[in-house]
Design brief:
The complex is a heterotrimer of chains A (157), B (789) and C (453). With 157 residues, chain A is of the alpha+beta class. Chain A is 44% helix and 13% strand. In chain A, strands 2-3-1-4-5 form a five-stranded mixed beta sheet, with helices on one face. The chains are: A alpha+beta (157), B alpha/beta (789), C alpha/beta (453). Chains in contact: A-B, A-C, B-C. At the A-C interface, helix 2, helix 4, helix 5 and helix 6 of A face strand 3, strand 5, strand 11 and helix 15 of C. The complex binds flavin mononucleotide (FMN), iron/sulfur cluster and FE2/S2 (inorganic) cluster (FES). The site of FE2/S2 (inorganic) cluster has 12 residues of chain B, from loops.
């Protein structure tokens, strides 16, 4: 289910923890699995659990607890916009509305072409740079004015 | 000890006690949901909030350690307000439809809501709805009722040993679930039904069949494994509706295995034999009791007169009561026959005549976990046991002890996951077990600088044996336990003698994990041959003219089902005393006498630690079934044997035990003058387990248990190397044939699916016994061939 | 700003950057060589070479009166002294799970000064006798997690981590662990659960992490800024650090200023700096509008009305006296265009969304509070709702395992207390006291040239 490359990355994470604590690598491992497969199917979660010698339900608990794991397929680009109060005071909600209009979708929806999924995010710890959005969990974009958003959407092929 | 004041009452409690434990001692009830004395503390429900002097806020009694001089108020204004507010929060998303809830009447939430709830809720929003989960054939779910106390999750992790349930998602979206689409397969799963304080997890077989207040609660004792769990049997109109644990810290604590909890379904089985039946001219007739008993007594008397009483053989189920066994033995002896045995799955009887006493656990059950009193020095070696499935609750005790530091090692022919950290394990073909145990004896002798028995001169200890020995030697509180597989082993006497040597060297205890409810009781009742009498195996290899079967189904319950079936078929008369009519018995028997299962008779089981546990009938016998002790009494009288004038089963017991002691005397695992035989391995060996839900006539007929993962049909399980060697792939159909080791020679075959099982040793194939599909293979321990069908 | 560079230069080479220069690849100064050039790792060298004993180190930190920068303000030196001496296996954990709305200071420290964190953690490990450490980094700043891993590689290569550090016979391994979207993992025991590969549900205390922490072993856990302040404390001495601030409030601190100001960002000032001065540093009120309210310590701290806030100085004691908390030092500034009901609705949703779900009052209560505030905001409020909210907060506060229950309740209590008229107006008139177009004008999304003000 998981490629050698992904397993190699997981191995590197496992090495960070004491020998009897392989399970500590589960968060990173699930994130890598999600990178590779696009989302975390039940089989993907079971594969990660199996690789780390932990019960599948324990991995599922983790996958369902943390917001950035996707338990259902998402578009090629998942855009998560922070709308929490500090961001909202500086346009976070408006940035999200702008995106909704542009993409023709609401939060938790995916564009018909499968390119974009829009998510509402909670505080990303970047409130001074509002509006803030994450692309595919790992890349943060700050000060997202309409122009910047248009530019970003254009770059997401 | 710590001093505290609880609601004005002065108390002293041991160091490390929590407030809720202190309250429990004082007899003060603090409402709670998530706390359970056998589980880790979660402190998540917040129902147990109490006031503690000087603490600015209410504290959870379950998680707050007692400190010296502490003053606790469990019913102060502050405490009650806090408790009531928690109750309000619990109820906002809980359906308020107790009248249609299966837990109604035995729901802790319902009970507490009456005392702590405020009539009308201020909550007017939509209630949360949580999808139900399919957890298998035993546990029904109504997850909207769940209050997220996580007792069930902690149970699977901590007591059952494998996390099969979890709390997924977060906040008020949290849901208790198994991994997507998976059932809960633990052999202890039913306990989560008891643990669930609301109606989220309920018994699937019991569901909606009765309300708790319609049920009579009666005490009984489990008729299955050697533990003798204490039961509460719930009965409505003489029908057993449900079985629950009766708490007994010395025996089953507050748990039951699923087998013990759900086997009651068999009591209501359509296969129940409810009328005496006699076969005449090949046709079965329902007859009156006196006709059937007349027929039976004539058959016994005639064969004794014409062929000698030794032409009779009596096979007694080890699940029969002490009284039934005693009267069967008395009957046989009265006829002048010594051919009686209850050790149906045993194949080596060479220790008979060499035993110092009745084989038993060698210690109290509670000592198994008590071995951990100084955890760092407790050591256990388990030889030949499918521990988790054969003794689910003993396995659980050892699991808890291991967590506190007990070291456990295993010698066995399968590497099943015991869900416990093992210090060392030696897994090899069945024929190799004596040698492996001998190696440990040798290694222990070497490590202790003691002399080993001269018979072990040629034995050289391997690394694993040395590792096991090192673990054993490093402890001071040690036990050697021989499991069912060791007792069924063709060199059982050797294993016994070696365990004895090992215990001698270590100064440790050793004993047997009793296979059945009356594995000790059978000896006490004298249901074993004396003198020239034939044992269970001999009665089959040298077939008898007449058989008396007490609760036994020889084709499934004996060490060699094929031999048993052949013996029954050739007999001129087979008299069956059983609660059930099976197709096999209908074929070979000529009298079927309906006798009561444990629920419909009084009687006694003596558990593996020698504990005498008597019980009463919980329901009236079904149809014309009668307690077997009464049937045997009448037979004794009809045969004019004398000494059968009993008025009650208690009289039988008291005569045998001299009253009702707590424990029987004469328990001793020692053997003398048993030759040590260390066979060498050759050929392909069968590893035969007796799966938990095939093991006795009752459980075989419990439909819900038969739908669990533990009841899958037997397969031919081999490791990858063996499969490759045979050119077989997992999933292929294979033909298994018996080559040697079978007392009746070769011949039996079975067609099975091959399966990969990395835990099966080389040169072995694991094929379960006690199942119709494998009975034809004969002896449990035999050499076999496997080829692609 | 010369003053700032003279004091604890937490953001070293990059703090003044902003706006569209915000590109990680534009950063300079975070690498080991730059850190060393700024005097980095001198404190560690001094401690190890000068043979300061672990107790000496702890005493020096006690003298600095550094109070934990994660929110609770617990004295760091005292916390370190709770670690059992004899335990063979101990851990140091850094809490960079910054997710409290309004707080974004740790991200900038990670970004501009990762080695200050590393050096601080090494010194802490030496002081408490820990052999291993983890820095738990908020999932949303994954790029900085990767940067931190690079910084760790540099430190390892330079012999600051690993076996026999600087030849002083002291071993310490340090690793990074990332979160993946759960505010609750900022709570220290939830964070430890998360490192153990479980969902982040806080543990009941006692036992505290100093006795039973990561993997059940004694563990010291501090905030990023707390650790990053350590090297500086040893550079100038504990007492001098204390003197930078005011009594009982040692040193300088980073304040994250967000909301309706012209130049949101992090500002490092001495403890006790007047709020007015901080506001000025943040460029003053956006569009010159009037200040309405300030949440002075992250979203969990009670909101304060403008007049109360203008009288405060930025330190634990002053803010506490005013009825709020300095918390993590996140200052959320709201002007007159803000609808306080809507603002509270969004915060309540946050706590509802982030409750871990174990405690009954928090699991059930946060959702209930949100639903009530939501219906008030949407014109469906009832006269009895404010009393209900009040009761709910009372029934949640102090009755849960962790402080999230309190954190969710305090905004509700304080918003309703200080801006009751707005709530009542909503309930009576089924609409906002602040007209929608005014609210819209408050946002800078369509008007402002971001970050260039
Ligand atoms: C709900 C909740 C969230 C928290 N989030 C953070 C956080 O993001 N960062 C942090 O350093 N401390 C956070 N804390 C405080 C930590 O539990 C802990 O007190 C702190 O990390 C200790 O470090 P310090 O003593 O250096 O402040 C949070 C606490 C709670 C109850
Ligand atoms: S207060 Fe809330 S977040 Fe904290 S432990 Fe309890 S349920 Fe979880
Ligand atoms: S019983 Fe104490 S919190 Fe649940």
């Amino acid at each position: 289910m998981l490629s050698e490359a992904t397993l190699g990355k997981i191995d590197r994470e496992v090495a960070k923890y004491p020998a009897a604590q392989k399970q500590s690598a589960v968060m990173a491992a699930l994130a890598f699995a999600q990178d590779e497969l696009g989302w975390l199917s039940k089989d993907a979660i079971a594969a990660v659990a199996g690789y780390l010698d932990m019960p599948a339900i324990a991995a599922y608990e983790v996958a369902s607890f943390y917001n950035m794991y996707d338990l259902a397929p998402v578009g090629k680009y998942k855009l998560t916009v922070c709308t929490n109060l500090p961001c909202a005071l500086s346009g976070g909600v408006h940035a999200a509305e702008y995106l909704k209009n542009k993409l023709g979708i609401d939060f938790n929806e995916t564009t018909a072409d499968g390119r974009f999924t829009l998510k509402e995010g909670e505080c990303m710890g970047a409130c001074g740079d509002a509006p803030v959005m994450l692309v595919n969990n790992k890349r943060m974009h700050c000060f997202m004015t309409p122009d910047e958003i248009d530019k970003l959407l254009g770059e997401c092929k | 000890m710590l001093e505290l004041e609880l609601d004005g009452q002065k108390l002293s409690v041991p160091e490390g006690s929590t407030v809720i434990e202190a309250a429990h001692r004082a007899g003060v009830y603090i409402p709670h949901f998530c706390y359970h004395k056998k589980l880790s503390i979660a402190a998540n429900c917040r129902m147990c909030l109490v006031q503690v002097e000087k603490a600015p806020k209410p504290l959870p009694a379950c998680a707050t350690p007692v400190t010296n001089g502490m003053k606790v108020f469990t019913h102060s204004d502050l405490a009650v307000k806090a408790q009531k507010s928690v109750m309000e929060f619990l109820l906002i998303n809980h359906p308020l439809d107790c009248p249609i809830c299966d837990q109604g009447g035995e729901c802790q939430l319902q009970d507490l809501a009456v005392g702590y709830g405020d009539g009308a809720s201020r909550y007017e929003e939509d209630k949360r709805v949580v999808p139900n989960k399919d957890l298998g054939s035993l546990i029904a779910t109504d997850m909207t009722r769940c209050i997220n106390c996580t007792r069930c999750v902690r149970f699977t992790q901590e007591i059952a040993g494998l996390m099969e349930l979890g709390q997924a998602f977060r906040g008020d979206r949290a849901e208790i679930m198994s991994f997507v689409g998976k059932t809960v397969d633990s052999e202890l799963s039913g306990n989560i039904i008891d643990l669930c304080p609301v109606g989220a997890l309920t018994s699937k077989p019991f569901r909606y069949t009765a309300r708790t207040w319609e049920l009579a609660r009666r005490k009984s004792v489990s008729p299955h494994d050697g533990l003798g769990s204490n039961l509460i049997v719930q009965v409505k109109h003489d029908r057993v509706m449900r079985v629950l644990p009766l708490e007994n810290e010395q025996v089953n604590e507050c748990w039951l295995s699923d087998k013990e909890r759900f086997s009651y379904e068999a009591l209501n089985s359509a296969e129940r034999l409810t009328k005496p039946m006699v076969k005449q001219d090949g046709r079965w007739q329902e007859v009156d009791w006196n006709v059937a008993l007349d027929y039976t007594s004539h058959a016994l008397r005639d064969v004794a007169k014409n062929h000698g009483a030794a032409a009779i053989g009596a096979l007694v189920s080890p699940h029969a009561t002490l009284e039934e066994m005693a009267l069967a033995a008395k009957l046989m002896r009265g006829l002048g026959c010594e051919n009686i045995d209850f050790r149906l799955r045993q194949s080596d009887f060479s220790a008979d005549g060499h035993r110092r006493g009745t084989p038993w656990l060698g210690m109290k059950v509670a000592e198994l976990s008590g071995l951990d009193r100084v955890p760092a020095v407790a050591r256990v070696l388990i030889v030949g046991s499918f521990l988790r499935k054969d003794h689910p609750l003993l396995a659980q005790r050892l699991r808890q002890a291991a967590k506190k530091g007990m070291q456990i090692s295993v010698i066995h022919s399968a590497d099943d996951d015991l869900l416990v950290d093992l210090t060392a394990r030696a897994v090899a073909a069945p024929s190799r077990l004596p040698e492996l145990l001998a190696q440990v004896v040798k290694a222990v002798a070497e490590q202790k600088g003691a002399a080993a028995d001269p018979s072990l001169e040629k034995v050289g200890a391997g690394d694993t044996a040395k590792k096991i020995a090192a673990s054993l030697v490093s402890g001071t509180n040690t036990a050697i336990l021989l499991g069912n597989f060791a007792q069924q082993h063709p060199r059982a006497a050797t294993l016994n003698a070696l365990a004895q040597q090992l215990a001698g060297l270590l100064g440790s205890k050793f004993g047997f994990l009793g296979e059945a409810a009356n594995s000790v009781g059978g000896y006490v009742a004298g249901a074993v041959p004396a003198g020239e009498g034939m044992n269970a195996a001999a009665m089959l290899t040298d077939p008898r003219k007449v058989y008396l079967l007490l609760g036994a189904e020889p084709e499934l319950d004996c060490a060699d089902g094929a031999a048993a079936l052949a013996a029954m078929q050739q007999a001129s008369s087979v008299i069956v005393l059983s609660p059930f009519k099976s197709q096999a018995a209908l074929d070979y028997a000529d009298v079927l006498l309906p006798v009561s299962p444990f629920s419909e008779t009084s009687g006694t089981f003596i558990n593996t630690e020698g504990r005498v546990q008597s019980f009463h009938a919980v329901a009236k016998p079904r149809g014309e079934a009668r307690p077997a002790w009464k049937v045997l009494r009448v037979l004794g009288n009809l045969l004019e044997l004398g000494g059968f004038g009993y008025d009650s089963s208690e009289q039988v017991r008291d005569e045998l035990l001299g009253g009702k002691p707590e424990f029987v005397s004469g328990l001793d695992n020692g053997v003398e003058g048993v030759a040590i035989e260390l066979p060498s391995a050759a050929g392909m060996e069968r590893v035969a387990d007796v799966p938990i839900h095939f093991s006795d006539p009752l459980v075989r007929r419990a439909p819900s248990l038969q739908r669990t993962a533990d009841a899958v049909a037997p397969a031919a399980r081999m490791n990858a190397a063996m499969l490759a060697k045979l050119g077989v792939a997992a999933g292929d159909i294979v033909k298994v044939g018996v080559t040697e080791g079978n007392p009746r020679g070769t011949g039996g075959t079975a067609t099975l699916q091959a399966e990969l099982d990395a835990g099966v040793p080389d040169n072995c194939v694991r094929i379960a016994a006690a199942h119709a599909s494998t009975a034809s293979l004969g002896a449990m321990f035999a050499n076999v061939t496997v080829e692609k069908a | 700003m010369a003053l700032l560079e003279a004091i604890n230069p937490l953001l070293s080479a990059g703090w003044q950057k902003g706006g569209h220069e915000w590109r990680l690849e534009n950063d300079t100064g975070w690498r080991l060589k730059d850190y060393e050039a700024r005097g980095g790792y001198q404190s560690l060298k001094k401690i190890l070479a000068g043979k300061m004993s672990p107790d000496d180190v702890i005493n020096e930190v006690k003298k600095s009166v550094l109070r934990g920068r994660g929110g609770a303000g617990f004295p760091t030196g005292l916390k370190w002294s709770f670690m059992p001496k004899a335990a063979p296996e101990k851990y140091i954990v850094c809490n960079t799970d910054e997710g409290e709305p309004g707080t974004f200071k740790d991200r900038d420290i990670q970004r501009f000064d990762p080695h200050a964190i590393i050096e601080g953690m090494i010194i802490a490990a030496y002081a408490v006798g820990a052999g291993r450490g983890y820095n738990y980094i908020h999932g949303e700043i994954y790029e900085l997690y990767q940067r931190f891993e690079q910084a760790l590689d540099e430190a390892r290569a330079a012999g600051y981590l690993g076996q026999n550090i600087l030849g002083a016979g002291f071993d310490f391994e340090l690793f990074a662990h990332h979160g993946w979207g759960a505010y609750i993992c900022g709570e220290e025991s939830a964070l430890l659960e998360s490192i153990e590969g479980k969902k982040g549900q806080p543990r009941f205390k006692p036992p505290f992490p100093a006795n039973v922490g990561l993997y059940g072993k004694p563990t010291t856990i501090n905030n990023t800024e707390s650790f990053a302040s350590i090297p500086f404390i040893f550079r100038i001495g504990g007492e001098s650090f204390l003197d930078l601030g005011k009594p009982n409030n040692g040193g300088t601190k980073l304040y994250s200023v967000s909301g309706h100001v012209n130049r949101p960002g992090n500002f490092e000032v001495p403890m006790g700096t007047p709020f007015a001065r901080l506001l000025e540093m943040a460029g003053g009120m956006r569009g010159g509008r009037k200040l309405k309210a300030v949440i002075p310590g992250g979203s969990s701290a009670p909101v304060l009305p403008a007049d109360v806030m203008m009288d405060c100085t930025m330190d634990y004691d002053s803010i506490a006296k005013a009825g709020s908390m300095l918390g993590s030092g996140a200052v959320i500034v709201m002007d007159e265009t803000t609808c306080m009901v809507k603002a509270l609705e969004r915060l309540s949703y946050f706590y509802y969304e982030e409750s871990c779900g174990q405690c009954t009052p928090c699991r059930e209560g946060t959702g209930w509070m949100y639903k009530v505030i939501h219906r008030i905001e949407h014109g469906e409020g009832r006269p009895e709702d404010l009393a209900l909210l009040d009761r709910l907060t009372i029934n949640i506060m102090g009755r849960t395992i962790c402080a999230l229950g309190d954190a969710a309740s305090m905004p509700v209590q304080s918003f309703v207390k200080h801006f009751r008229n707005e709530f009542e107006y909503h309930i009576e008139n089924k609409k906002c006291l602040v007209p929608p177009d005014v609210q819209r004008a408050g946002s800078s999304f369509f008007t402002r040239n971001m970050g260039q003000a």
